[in-house]
Design a protein that fits this description.
The protein is built from 19 helices and four strands. It is mainly alpha-helical. The protein has one domain. Strand 1 and strand 2 form a beta hairpin. The two termini are 42 Å apart. The model has no long low-confidence stretch (mean pLDDT 89).
Length: 506
């Protein structure tokens, strides 16, 4: 069995085991989730080691660990899998977020069995998307990842959960409609005369390179980029994201912002830009403007929010906009920074949402105007929140600094006025990020004690318990590890970026 298929099979086995557990045996269900999540982390770590060893041994194929099985012969659709350095980084990120999200979900009491089943279905879609090298199979897993979000937010969420779930679903399904048109446009137009229609990414890229007429790209590149850009919270298609984050249960927010939104950036890069490079060069300036707005608008919006989840949600709009902005710089350094930012932001935002969820569970409010002085009674949680904030604003030694510096150094390599103006425009988000992070830290963590709406029958405020510490310390360790020793990850990503970045050399 191909090792990549384990990333789909293990969650499916976990689903089958949990489905067979009678009643609401929460302890057994949690054990299955923890053991299965640990197996996924171990599998991704083993895959990473093997991948690095194969590259060091001289393996130069674009994708390694490839396998292909025919699914539907009439349309030449295959279950084709393979990974490069970018995919391996995304699998590592996904495994860490799934494990820590499963641990944080110990707090779920209502219909825990059904909750974990939908949580795992979402995980299947995410893993399948990152290992696919067949365009149709990738789209199939993409849809599998989106569908569970409606139920996870609508049933287990809080606040305006029905509205948020419906808004999220409708906007993402609208993006999927654009995406489907784009995918079939690529499928039918990328084949040289007399060639065979194919969904294989490498075969399509080779076919496009042989073509003389690329007019079709000008139609389907915008559709595909917007389709994925909706999930990447690109302005002005971002409005579903803050509402969805605010209403989602804690672990779903972690997986949603930490991994699911990365499908948007990954898809823009792997599908839209890789398969339609000529249109990317011609039309990229339009999306640079939109993503540049996302970066600054998201940061400014976070400054005026009073709900902790909305603050982090708009921060995610800014940081995910920075991913797309860096990809559109179309050089190796900036694109490497974009993937590093995807990993870094995934870890940081998962940590933020975990901490916010724990604090909300005790104070029963996320309004920063109703909380202060929490450092006095929950020092571990508050120190971890400060670490997450410092990583978000780009403190050296943490992952955010590595990613953002790589992005801006690469982006500034463009000598023309248009690019440099927007790079400077994007750089202002660093200052704005410091404003809203330090504002929250100063208001919520320090000052006189104010505890929100703690109910009379509650046991009162407390610090993190063991399972919460395991989850948040794991995320912090990953953030620090990337910040202190980033070269192995950036070099692995750079090898995956290089053949695609070469397409944009004029």
């Amino acid at each position: 069995m191909n090792i990549l298929s384990l990333f789909v099979i293990i969650p499916l086995i976990m689903m089958a085991v949990i489905f067979c557990i009678s009643g609401e045996n929460k302890k057994l269900i949690r054990s299955v989730m923890t053991v299965g999540g640990a197996c996924l982390v171990a599998t991704s770590a083993y895959l990473t080691i093997q991948f690095l060893q194969m590259r060091a041994g001289g393996e130069s194929d674009a994708f390694l660990f490839t396998d292909s099985v025919m699914w539907y012969e009439a349309f030449n659709i295959h279950y084709s899998v393979g990974v490069d350095g970018i995919s391996v980084a995304m699998l590592l990120l996904s495994s860490v977020i799934v494990l820590t999200g499963a641990i944080i979900s110990y707090a779920i009491e209502t219909k825990a069995k059904e909750y974990y089943l939908w949580f795992l279905m979402l995980s299947v879609g995410v893993y399948g998307f990152f290992i696919s090298v067949d365009l149709f199979t990738m789209f199939l897993f993409y849809e599998v990842a989106l569908i569970p979000m409606y139920l996870l937010i609508g049933l287990w969420g809080s606040g305006k959960k029905e509205y948020s779930a419906m808004k999220l679903t409708l906007m993402l399904m609208g993006g999927s409609a654009f995406l489907m048109i784009g995918i079939f446009g690529i499928y039918y137009n990328s084949v040289p005369e007399g060639g065979q229609l194919t969904f294989n990414l490498q075969e399509i890229a080779a076919n496009v390179a042989m073509q003389e007429n690329h007019d079709w790209e000008m139609i389907f590149f915008p559709l595909t980029f917007i389709g994925f850009g909706v999930l990447g919270a690109m302005f002005p298609f971002h409005t579903w994201s803050p509402d969805g984050h605010a209403s989602a249960p804690t672990a779903v927010s972690m997986l949603h912002a930490g991994v699911l939104m990365k499908l948007g950036g990954y898809g823009c890069f792997r599908v839209a830009m890789y398969l339609m490079p000529h249109a990317a060069l011609e039309l990229g300036w339009i999306f640079i403007i939109l993503t540049g707005i996302s970066v600054v608008y998201g940061a400014f919006s976070a400054c005026v929010q009073t709900d902790l989840k909305y603050i982090n949600a708009y921060s995610s709009v800014s940081h995910c906009g920075l991913v797309l902005f860096a990809l559109l710089m179309m050089n190796q350094t900036a694109m490497t920074g974009a993937i590093l930012q995807m990993v870094s932001h995934g870890l940081m935002t998962a940590l933020f949402f975990a901490l916010i969820g724990i604090i909300y569970g005790m104070t029963h409010t996320r309004d920063i105007r109703e909380m202060s002085g929490l450092m006095k009674i929950m020092p571990v949680l508050c120190v971890c929140y400060v670490i997450a904030g410092l990583a978000s604003l780009g403190l050296p030694g943490l992952s955010g600094f590595v990613a953002e510096m790589t992005i801006f150094v690469g982006a500034f390599q463009h000598a023309d006025t248009f690019h440099r103006v927007f790079v400077i425009f994007g750089c202002t988000s660093i200052v704005i990020t410091a404003v809203y992070i330090l504002r929250v830290v100063g208001k919520v963590l320090f000052g006189p004690l104010q505890t929100g709406h703690v109910a009379e029958n509650d046991k009162g405020l407390r610090d993190a318990v063991l399972y919460e510490k395991i989850a948040i310390f794991t995320l912090i360790a990953c953030i620090a590890a990337i910040g202190l020793a980033p070269l192995w990850l950036s070099n692995m990503i750079r090898e995956g970026i290089e053949p695609i970045a070469n397409l944009f050399i004029k």
